[in-house]
Design a protein that fits this description.
76% of the residues lie in helices and 0% in strands. The chain is an all-alpha fold and 317 residues long.
């Protein structure tokens, strides 16, 4: 296990390095001059040259890359070209709303999708199965921002107790924080809940037809024990895999939802930074998101051993 963890962590650093390098090159390939965006289209050439020199944009691309990589290794993401503020500080300021919406959205998705998927699989081709399948297809088909608009029109405008705009930090109280992220979290969670429901149903149907399930029922074991101990535990593996990946994907899906609900999070910061050619902020944001992807894959692998202790990781896998 220790060798496996060491190998996975090494792979994680390699992936993050590759992503960081690709982003470094990509953002500098976008048409537009950050100095001109800061000073305006009719700026004096000498002023533009001075700003480029101050920001280090007049140096060769490989010099900029080496300098940036050295700062990154030290945990320094640099400063924003637009605000001169530390990128890490900016990311910390906007990370809370994005993570809050994403985590609550996944909790909502799991709480709805897993029970619905189990019921749908047990009662295959029944009215319950058709209803759950229809709802899941609606969830998958509707993007999060569209669900958010419907929630604002149907809930936010009718119930003043549930805000439909802005964000309140957790430090201001759990209740106001929860009220402000409830609708955005539902908008984010429903589409991914549909995906999880379909995966849970398919996985459960496959397990229910296995020979060991028939053997367990033939032994006279409790139907509940057969379903959850022998069935759901084995069906949970692919569901956990998808849930872990989706949690990382949700961070990308939060972007449009944040705009609909007027919340300043990672997504809006990334979009505005791309428009302003704010290279350090774009690079820092993408690196953080890629880190979440890699970290969630590692967590999913570790959860496998918790769900099924028979799984062993070794150096020859």
């Amino acid at each position: 296990m220790q060798r496996y963890l060491a190998k996975r962590i090494l792979h994680a650093f390699v992936v993050i390095y590759v992503v960081a390098t690709v982003v470094f090159v990509a953002v500098r390939s976008i048409p537009g001059d950050p100095a001109r965006l800061m000073l305006g289209g009719d700026a004096d050439p000498q002023a533009l040259a001075a700003v480029r020199q101050e920001l280090g944009l007049n140096q060769p691309i490989y010099v900029q890359y080496i300098r940036w990589l050295g700062e990154l290794v030290q945990g320094d993401f640099g400063d924003s070209i637009h605000t001169q503020q530390s990128v890490i500080t900016m990311l910390i300021d906007v990370a809370e709303p994005t993570l809050s919406i994403a985590l609550l959205g996944m909790v909502i998705a799991i709480c709805i999708a897993v029970p619905a998927g189990i019921i749908s699989a047990i009662h295959r081709y029944s009215p319950e199965d058709y209803i759950a399948t229809l709802i899941s297809f609606f969830g998958i088909s509707m993007p999060g921002f569209w669900i958010g608009i419907l929630l604002i029109l149907g809930v936010g405008t009718r119930f003043e107790a549930i805000p439909s705009f802005g964000y309140v930090p957790l430090s201001d109280g759990i209740v106001p924080w929860f009220k402000h992220i409830l609708l955005p979290a539902i908008a984010v969670g429903l589409p991914y809940g549909g995906i999880l429901m379909r995966m849970t149903r398919s996985s459960m149907l496959e397990v229910l037809n296995e020979d060991y399930m028939r053997t367990a029922r033939a032994k006279g074991l409790s139907p509940r024990l057969v379903l959850f101990k022998h069935g759901f535990q084995n069906a949970l593996m692919p569901v956990v895999t998808i849930a872990g990946i989706l949690l990382a994907v949700v961070l990308g899906g939060v972007v449009a939802v944040e705009i609909v609900f007027g919340i300043q999070g990672l997504g809006r910061l990334l979009i505005s930074s791309i428009n302003r050619r704010d290279f350090p902020v774009v690079q820092g944001t993408v690196i953080i998101i890629s880190f979440v992807f890699v970290f969630m894959n590692l967590v999913v692998d570790m959860l496998y051993t918790v769900i099924n202790p028979k799984i062993k990781y070794g150096g020859s896998e």
